[in-house]
Amino acid sequence: GAASTASMAKHDLNRLNAGLMTLLQSLTPTTEELAVQDASLQKVTSLLKEAWPGANVELFGSVANGLSVRGTNDLDICMQLPESSDAKESKVEAALRVAETVWEAGMEDVKDLPGARIPVVKFGLPGTALRVDVTIDNDLACANTRYLAAYAAIDPRFRQLVTIVKHWAKRRKVNEPYTGTLSSYCYALMCVHLLQTRSPPILPALQLLPHTHTGSIQGWDVGHYDKVETLQDFGNANTQTLAELVWDFFEYWAWGHDYRSTVISVRTAGTLTKTEKGWAQRVGRERHLVCIEDPFELSHDLGRTVDRQTSGVLRKEFLRAATLLRDSPNPLHQLFERF
Ligand code: ATP
Ligand code: MG
Predict the structure, then answer these.
(1) What is the CATH number of the domain that holds 330?
(2) Does the C-beta of 72 come closer than 6 Å to ligand 1?
(3) Per-residue pLDDT tens digits for 43-87
């Protein structure tokens, strides 16, 4: 049966909230960390612009949208190749040349994955703990980064919830898309969905409002409302605390979500059916066991990394967290215990 924060003693809930707020502070990036990230971005930008005059170099990912956790040490940089009159250099060729360029400039542990869905070059910055990922023409990721930044600017509880959920997911080892669990981006969208579906809602569906930002990338409509300064009061009618929202998050994924037939859709602030999406059965290697629709690239199921075994692992972890929150008077320590 479903738990409810109504069943938790008020003082327990207050204590949980105070504990989460303290944890949140310890997870917020330090000013030194931000300064190193900034200097590193400048350095990589000038390296790339020297080799590709006219290229656009842009930060994306959690450092760009304010959803990063202290010590994450992962800088996501996208380079948009200049439109030249010659045949445009292919992404794969460009990735190889990025790898050469940064290696010659003394970057450490350069790895290039030109065969990935999005070609990427990974390296470390000497003298820092930072790992950098440079991707080529990754315009959709830049767009979804700005889209999440817009949600973050509407209500502070979004960033707070994402930070706690990401910390939990890293500690419990369920934030590893390459081994079959979910990406940070996916968890962020799960948090948007949760806040869109509170009553009253804490976040709107920016794509259902008039599109003040318009455009299309690789044929996908990225239009949405982005005048977030007009939405500062949007969530105010909802007074739920972080503790209540963390509770709601795990309760939903443990007991509320219909894994068999439902697709989470941030685009519509609701859910769709797997049948509507054509995701009711396995398609090739995509099993569609946990379905989260990408807000722009609508054919992309962000849960497609999940297989039978890891879907069991995820379900077990959601249940563990929800049960701890329901039954333990002081669940904080166990909730984030390293797996
Ligand atoms: P972290 O703090 O864990 O690094 P992150 O949001 O930066 O979180 P990354 O895995 O580093 O997550 O991905 C960087 C960015 O790439 C995301 O913010 C998102 O914009 C984009 N991205 C990642 N995975 C996908 C995906 N499967 N589909 C579309 N965009 C993605
Ligand atoms: Mg990142």
Answers:
(1) 1.10.1410.10
(2) yes
(3) 999 999 999 999 999 999 999 999 999 998 899 999 999 887 566
Does the beta carbon of 185 sit less than 6 angstroms from any atom of ligand 1?
yes
8 A C-beta contact, residue 325 and residue 331: yes
Are 257 and 319 contacting, i.e. CB atoms less than 8 angstroms apart?
no
User: Which of ligand 1's atoms lies nearest the C-alpha of 141?
Assistant: 20
ipTM for the complex shown: 0.98
Query: Residue 191 burial (CB < 10 Å; 0-12/13-18/19+)?
Result: buried
- Ligand 1, atom 17, residue with closest C-alpha: 61
Rounded-to-integer distance, Cα 325 and Cα 63, Å: 30
Domain count, the chain: 2
pLDDT per residue over 97-132, tens digit each? 999 999 999 999 999 987 788 889 999 999 999 999
Choose one of 76, 145, 217 to mutate for the ligand 1 pocket test, by most ligand atoms within 8 angstroms of C-beta: 76
Same domain assignment for residues 295 and 175: yes
How many residues are listed for the chain in this entry?
A: 339
Domain of 46 in residue numbering reads as 31-138
Q: Is the CB of 183 under 6 A from ligand 1?
A: yes
Domain boundary residue, one of 121, 138, 155 = 138
Round to whole Å and give the CA distance between 140 and 148: 12
Burial of residue 156 (number of CB atoms within 10 Å: 0-12, 13-18, 19+)? exposed
